[in-house]
Amino acid sequence: MQLLDGKACAATIKSEVAAETVRLAGARKPTLALVRVGEDPASKVYVAAKAKACEECGIESRNVHLPDDSSEARVLGVLRDFNDDPSVDGILLQLPLPRQIDADRAIATISPDKDVDGFHPENLGRLAAGTPRFVPCTPLGIRELLLRNGIETAGANAVVLGRSVIVGKPMALLLSQKGPGGDATVTMCHSRSRDLASYTRRADIVIAAMGVPQFVKGDMVKDGAVVVDVGINRVEDTSPKGYHLVGDVDFDAVAPRTSFITPVPGGVGPMTVAMLMSNTLVAFRIRTGQ
């Protein structure tokens, strides 16, 4: 069993982005607008991590934090202002949003050529059509983690657990596309799948993104499988913090059976941030014709 070290891989990618940012340096830096609404504690941590990554990569970040009671009109107005700002290359709207704001409408308001999160319907459609512009960062990071660790996907039987537009659906599309990191035979399972374990036991690659703590047990994977755990769940305990983090995979039970497995934390999470930096650089290159 080998760990898929997302932290180390992400550091390499950010170094590559930083070097490319220096090479392309001109009148301005690549610029990412980070929009957060409300006081969700996790969102605050995530946005801070993304701002720090921008600094590490030589990318300028513009942070806007709106109060929890902001109207939808105000949020959409901020997004439209960034759409119209020629010095902004990418826009990230941190989810979740307060109840009064329609997340789908907000995401659709972001200009598709600045949607570095890859959630805009146009970008998801381009991915489905096989002509991607921006791919959601978590699936993109997983593909990069597989590629950089020499894990062959061509002809592999891959099972994706979860069907969200953030991870599950784009992950299935990426794995099934032609070319490096693709050409897999993909099954997408979800909460209504019958006898789900019968699919995972046949899989060469299992991507767990259901949001259920330690859902995947040892008897659900075959020997030598590659397991990627997207989940990050808080479980209460008696430690000073009052909780510890676990994934969607029962790591202790599953790891001994695998050839490769991601840890939680330190697996997929850092890769998501690294690919956001990569997507921002791509947006900058598109907008500046470089």
Give an overview of the whole structure.
The chain is built from ten helices and eleven strands. Helix 1 packs parallel to helix 10, helix 6 (137-148) crosses helix 7 and helix 6 packs across helix 10. It is globular. With 290 residues, it is α/β, with parallel strands linked by helices. The strands form three sheets. The protein has a six-stranded parallel β-sheet with strand order 1-11-8-7-5-6. A three-stranded parallel β-sheet has the order 3-2-4, with helices on both faces.
Task: Give the topology, please.
Elements lengths: L1 E2 L2 H18 L7 E7 L3 H17 L2 E7 L5 H13 L5 E4 L9 H7 L11 H9 L7 H12 L8 E5 L6 H9 L8 E5 L6 H5 L4 E4 L16 E5 L3 E4 L6 E4 L4 H4 L3 E4 L6 H21 L2
Parallel strand pairs: 1-11, 2-3, 2-4, 5-6, 5-7, 7-8, 8-11
Antiparallel strand pairs: 9-10
Helix pairs in contact: 1-10, 2-10, 6-7, 6-10
Radius of gyration: 19 Å
Helix content: 25-40%
Dominant shape: globular
Spans of at least 5 consecutive residues with low confidence: none
Structural class: alpha/beta
Task: Determine the number of helices (DSSP H or I, runs of at least 4 residues).
Answer: 10
The H/E string reads EHEHEHEHHHEHEHEEEEHEH
The strand order across the widest sheet is 1-11-8-7-5-6
- The span between the termini is 42 Å
